[in-house]
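Quiz preparation item.
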């Protein structure tokens, strides 16, 4: 019996993770068994075990895959954007767009499952760090007034977490994409000269 070519195996692995991410985003993952995931992805349970040793590890790996995919989409969205204010706005809007397919069930499951929540929190910290770097650049270029960029980034991180936990939706009625647009508008208007 021959083994599949590495390129095919890599492509198939990506397809499975893409399918799993799409499934989890639309329906959540806590209620799904490995048998159900395999059936929905039209693969065997043993194929899933080639991706991870348990459902928990599979969910964690799928969450990492989701954020890698989101980072790539955000990078494409950001290409060609000039000016710090526009970069911050574009960046936060791109985050909102990347998270738009995430159902309430997915976000609730993510919040309840510590390994997946940790991945989300790590990505939130990285996003806040990028915003801080953009603010620092805007202050250095004279586009923004002299603000404490670390505080502004902390504010962004707190709001990203509140958006993820659906607290912003509950208190304001804004969907996630609209909340990210509002955050960008308020942040950039507040620090502009």
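Solution:
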């Amino acid at each position: 019996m021959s083994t599949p070519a590495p390129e095919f195996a890599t492509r198939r692995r990506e397809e499975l993770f893409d399918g799993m991410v799409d499934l989890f985003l639309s329906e959540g993952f806590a209620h799904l068994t490995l048998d159900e995931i395999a059936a929905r992805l039209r693969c065997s349970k043993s194929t899933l075990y080639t991706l991870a040793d348990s459902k928990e590890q599979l969910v964690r790996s799928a969450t990492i895959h989701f954020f890698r995919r989101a980072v790539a989409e955000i990078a494409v969205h950001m290409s060609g954007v000039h000016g710090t204010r526009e970069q911050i706005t574009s960046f936060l809007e791109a985050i909102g767009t990347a998270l738009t397919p995430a159902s309430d069930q997915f976000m609730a499951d993510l919040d309840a499952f510590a390994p997946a929540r940790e991945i989300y929190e790590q990505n939130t910290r990285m996003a806040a760090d990028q915003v801080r770097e953009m603010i620092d650049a805007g202050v250095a270029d004279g586009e923004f007034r002299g603000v404490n960029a670390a505080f502004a980034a902390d504010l962004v991180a707190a709001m990203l977490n509140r958006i993820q936990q659906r607290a912003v939706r509950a208190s304001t009625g804004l969907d996630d994409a609209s909340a990210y647009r509002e955050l960008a508008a308020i942040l950039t208007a507040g620090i502009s000269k």
